[in-house]
Amino acid sequence: MKLYNIKDRSEQVNFEQALKQGLGRYQGLFFPDSIKKLDNLASLLRMELVPRSSAILAHMLGGEVSKDVLDAILEKAFTFPAPVVKVSENIHALELFHGPTLAFKDFGGRFMAQCLAQFNAGKKTTILTATSGDTGAAVAHAFFEMENVNVVILYPKGKISVMQEKLFCTLGKNITTLAIEGTFDDCQAIVKQAFDDQELREAIALNSANSINISRILAQICYYFEAFAQLDAKQRENLVISVPSGNFGDLTAGLLAKALGLPVKRFIAATNSNDTVPRYLKTKSWTPRQTLATLSNAMDVSAPNNWPRIEELFNVQGWPLECLGYGVTTDSQTIDALRELDALGYLCEPHGAIAYAELTKQLQPGETGLFLCTAHPAKFKESVEDILGNHVELPEALASCADLPLLSQDFGADFSAIREFLMAM
Ligand SMILES: *Cc1c(COP(=O)(O)O)cnc(C)c1O
User: Fold this and answer.
1) Which of 200, 233, 262, 343 is the most exposed place for a label (fewest CB within 10 A)?
2) Are the C-beta atoms of 56 and 44 separated by less than 8 Å?
3) What's the longest Cα–Cα distance across the chain?
C-alpha cells in the first residue's frame, strides 16, 4: 500500500512506515495513493465480520501484509460484534460499543496494537497519545502488558467522565497516564510538538496511536460494511449514515468505505457545539474557537485533526463537499434526543444521541437512517442517569475497575515538563 503526505506529496511511505510514524513531515497526514473499488461487494456482504474485514483490508494493503497474517491480526482484534438494532420504523442504531472498553475506538486501537506487535517484534516503542476520553482506554487496553511497548496517555484533567478515567488510569504496568491542566486540544498540541522533536522522537522511539494513525482508520472502514451487511435490500437502497464527530476519524473511515464501493447515499457529520467543521462547510472559513465542554466530551474538539483527509478524499473522488450533510446539536437538544430515544425503548448516551438528533432532522421520505452509537451508555452513567432519571447497570468491564485507585500524574499544559518526563522514562 502506498500512502503520501497530504502536506508534502514527495513524502511517500508504505503501510508499515505510516503505521510506525503516525504523522509525516510538517505534521502532515498520510493518505492512500490510490483507492480501488472492491469488485466483489455482493459476496463480501455475505461473509462474517472477520473474514470480510480481512478481505477488505487485504485489498487496501495490496499485498503488503499477507492474507494469513491479516486473518490472524483480525481474529485477535475484532473479538466482539457490531450489531445493527432497530430503533424506529426507518431508523437503526449501529452499536460499536461491545468491545473491552465499551467504545468504537476498540476496533482501531486493537487493530493498531496487533499490527505493531506484528511489525515491531522485539523492538522498544513508546506510544504517546492524547485522548478526549475513549481513545485512552482503547489504546491502554489494546497494549496492556504487551512486551517492549510503553504507553503514555495525555488527557484533559476533569474533562472526561469518571468511568472513562477509571477504565485506563487504573491499569499501571506499561501504561502511564498524565492528567493535563487544559483541554483536549492542548493535549493534542503537546503530542504534535513531541512528534516534531526529532531528538525526543528517536530517543524513545515515539509512535502515536491517535486517530491520525492510518491503521485505526483502516480498521474502522470494516464496520460500515458490517452494518450494511445486516440491512435488507430495501434498507440498503437509500441509506443515510449519521456519524457523531470529534476528530473526524470515524467519518473519514465511512467515506473511505463509500470510496471503496459501499453504496451509501449520504453521510451526515454530526457535531456538538464545537462546530468548527459545520461552520466551515457553511462559510468556507476555517476558524476554530476555544473548545467548549459538553455532555458529549469525546467530541469536544475544535481543531479536528482528520479533517484534511476528508477534504483530500472529496478532492480525489471528485465529490462536491456540498454532498456532505452536517449539523450542530447543543447540550439541551442532546438531552431531548436522549429522552426521545428512551421513549422509543432505546437506551443511548450523549454521542449517539447527537447522531440520532441530526439524522431525524435531515432524513427524507423513502430513506433509511443509520446512526452510530459510539459508546456504551454506562460509560456516561452520571449524565445518562441524571437526564433519564433511571438506573444504568455497569457492565463487567466497568464494574471491575470502578473502585480501583487512579494512578495518573498531574501536569500543566507545558511541553517542556512533559518532554523531560518522557526523556527520563
Ligand atoms: C472518539 C469518539 C467520538 C468521535 O470520533 P472521531 O473519530 O474523533 O470523530 C464520538 N463518540 C465517542 C463515544 C468517542 O469516543
Assistant:
1) 233
2) yes
3) 60
CB of 169 shorter than 6 A to ligand 1: no
Q: How many CA atoms does the CB half-sphere of 324 hold within 13 Å?
A: 28
> What is the per-residue pLDDT for 126?
93
Kindly give the distance from the C-alpha atom of residue 123 to the centroid of ligand 1, in angstroms, as a whole number.
30
190 CB contacts (<8 Å, ≥6 apart)? 130, 154, 180, 413, 415, 418
CB distance 295 to ligand 1 below 6 Å: no
pLDDT for position 211: 67
Mean pLDDT, residues 249-274 taken together: 98
Residue nearest to atom 15 of ligand 1 (CA): 134
224, 253 in Cβ contact below 8 A? yes
The answer, yes or no, to whether residue 208 has pLDDT greater than 80, is no
Strand-pair partners of 42 = none
CATH of 81-100+214-393, one of 3.40.1190.10, 3.40.640.10, 3.40.50.1100, 1.50.10.10: 3.40.50.1100
Could you tell me the residue ranges of all domains in the chain?
81-100+214-393
Report the mean per-residue pLDDT for the chain: 95
What was the pLDDT predicted at 132?
80
Q: Is the shortest distance between the CB of 134 and ligand 1 below 6 Å?
A: yes
CB of 165 sitting under 6 A from ligand 1: no
State the distance from the centre of ligand 1 to the C-alpha of 251, rounded, in angstroms.
10
Instruction: Please report the atom of ligand 1 found closest to the CA of residue 349.
Output: 13
Question: pLDDT tens across 269-299, in order?
Answer: 999 999 999 999 999 999 999 989 999 999 9
The residue to mutate among 374, 380, 381, 384, having the most atoms of ligand 1 within 8 angstroms of its beta carbon, is: 374
User: 120-138: per-residue pLDDT in tens?
Assistant: 877 888 999 998 878 899 9
Residue 163 pLDDT: 86
End-to-end CA distance of the chain: 34
